[in-house]
Design a protein that fits this description.
about 250 residues; OB fold (Dihydrolipoamide Acetyltransferase, E2P); 8 helices; five-stranded antiparallel beta sheet; five-stranded parallel beta sheet; alpha/beta; 15 strands; single chain; Rossmann fold
Length: about 250
């Protein structure tokens, strides 16, 4: 399967490097155009109608997110290319978006392209990853933001406000939702701790990450335990107790 691609990157060296990598290591990708800004990228994408857009996050005179907001209906996959930015990475992880850190790693590039090819070959519907990302960036209220959770059959889009707590299950994480539903996700609790730390979630135990919005009671003990709004009782590690109690000062 041949995929058409566009690169939007402000640095010429970055564009040329990615172009060379695609031609050498991604034979199924045909590069149909390159742009150096949001201003030139938007008309190029509309003209070429690519399957994939390799999009730099940080550019002068508008970033990659600004570019995406100019499309009412995004019909292409996006692979974000970004220098390390904690804010950007958290936003991309919440939406399960594809991204590659600069300097571009060939294996990461090939892996992103292969995932997109698999999705195209399976004829699955265009994912809502990018829409969730844009909605999250526009949202003022943290708890109204959404997270995409990959499951065996595909993925589920969940409002952060629906998550009561997350529990480690070896290298998996079980999400406990307000509805009573549980979702077992093939990612570690540490991954979701890093994603949700800015959304009033607190790691209180090696196995437990809780949404502070749903704490209804704390009971003293060596570390003590917390009663959540769904009636579940969650242990607090002694070394996490003070950090947790400080949230109420």
């Amino acid at each position: 399967m041949q995929l058409k691609a566009v690169i939007v990157e402000d640095e010429e060296s970055g564009r040329e490097t990615l172009k060379n990598y695609l031609s050498t290591y991604c034979k199924d990708v045909e590069l149909v155009g390159m742009a150096d800004s949001v201003k030139s990228g938007v008309p190029l994408i509309k003209e070429k109608n690519p399957d994939i857009v390799f999009l730099d996050v940080e550019m002068p005179y508008g970033n990659g997110f600004d570019l995406l907001e100019q499309f009412d209906n995004i019909q292409f996959e996006v692979v974000f290319v970004t220098a390390f930015s904690q804010y950007a990475i958290k936003a991309l992880n919440l939406s399960a978006s594809y991204y590659i850190l600069k300097p571009v790693d060939i294996d990461e590039l090939v892996a992103a392209v292969e995932k997109i090819k698999e999705k195209k070959l399976s004829k699955s519907e265009m994912p809502s990853h990018t829409k969730v990302l844009i909605d999250n960036l526009k949202s003022i209220n943290n708890q109204s933001k959404k997270i995409i959770l990959p499951i065996l059959e595909g993925f589920e889009v969940i409002s952060i406000s629906e998550v009561i707590r997350c529990e480690a299950q070896d290298n998996f994480t079980q999400f406990h939702l307000k509805s009573g539903k549980k979702l077992l996700i093939c990612r570690t609790l540490k991954f979701y701790e890093e994603c949700l730390v800015d959304f009033d979630f607190v790691r209180i135990h090696k196995s437990h990450l809780i949404n502070m919005q749903y704490v209804i009671k704390y009971t003293k003990g060596k570390g003590g335990f917390i009663t959540m709004s769904d009636g579940s009782q969650v242990d607090v590690s002694p070394n996490k107790r003070d950090e947790f109690l400080m949230k109420f000062e």
